[in-house]
Amino acid sequence: MDFFATAAKGTEPALRDELREIGVRGVRADRGGVHFGGALDLGARVCLESRIAVRVLAELGRFDAGSVDALYAGVREIDWAGLIGPRHTLAVRASVRDGALTHSGYVALKTKDAIVDVLRDKRGWRPSVDTEDPDVLLFVHVAKDSATVYLDIGGGSLHQRGWRARSAEAPMKETLAAAILRLAGWDRRSPLRDPMCGSGTLAIEAALWARGVAPGLSRPRLGVERAAWLDDSLARRLAELRSSLRERARTSKAAPDVAGSDLDPTAVAIARANAAAAGVGVDFEVAPVSALRPTSPPGWVVTNPPYGERLATDGTLYREMAKTFSQLAGHHVTVLAGSMAILRAFPSPPDRSLLVLNGPIECRLLSWEIGSRAGARTSRSSPSASRQSGGARRARAR
Ligand SMILES: C[S@@+](CC[C@H](N)C(=O)[O-])C[C@H]1O[C@@H](n2cnc3c(N)ncnc32)[C@H](O)[C@@H]1O
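That is the input. Now the predicted structure with S-adenosylmethionine docked in place:
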């Protein structure tokens, strides 16, 4: 089968690398996600193991859709009876780009009509629509008059891991946090700090990643397990896969030094509750970003400061961040920033800057390798950063 795993814009290379590490071959990063091919089991495994994929879509058909009639006819050609049984519910979502069909809602409606009509004509029954919690969730993507119809084999957005008991203000999606940790280059062994942790997403995802806990294990059933494709053999193979993934997490010895802090006591309480629900030992403390101290050995600081016009124009927080981070000799600092005003506060330009979408917000993922002297910049290849790092104070973020 051909699959397309979707990811937040800008994080596609991180998903590609993650899928390669999971053992998926022939992956190809594209706009908004990664293509790969293989058996249905492989797609299901990606749903269970990928931290970065938002959805895993299996291609059901591809055809010309320069008109509504062509779309309707193309959808009818797909083998729906093999996928949807009499008791299954379905929902269709659509997107359109650069073609004759310009209304996504209408494309979704006509696709649903074609499926219902062909099943009624050939089988004598009609599936019901459930837009909230369908058994079969379908996506239609029409670009340049070509339609592709997909089944969402995860059955929903994979950012829902089951550990988020409560949300603080502006929480980051778990899938985006996982992508940022990979893009930041964290090695899963060195200490990691998030000094503006909010609900704790980055730190919790880091701890789960280091321990190899498969994020999809909290999902009782994948989308593919709710469709007519599920037979005894696939059910058995997925049960075996889940049990081997559980065993891997159970026997993991990794206990990375990951911690978070935030000025807001409510956010810290939420982060602690979330970490407890996730079953990870992450320390969260109430503290301003200025209280952040170097770790020993020097590690990573990955954080996501608040967005907002006031912050951008005032600049106080950015100056506080710049001053604090410039004292972390030998550390890697990565900031997901909603405003470029942050750059004015830092003494040196970032070593890397990537465009990343956080929901609808266009952000920059900025990374600095902090040099050996406070406030100075040392190139990534300089050995002095690691030499000097031994003197880092043995204090954790409070
Ligand atoms: C965009 S939110 C972070 C969201 C977080 N990534 C999550 O997933 O929940 C920014 C956080 O920065 C915190 N904050 C703002 N100013 C701070 C400061 N000076 N020191 C520490 N934390 C601060 C806020 O309380 C807020 O929780």
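The chain has a mean pLDDT of 91.
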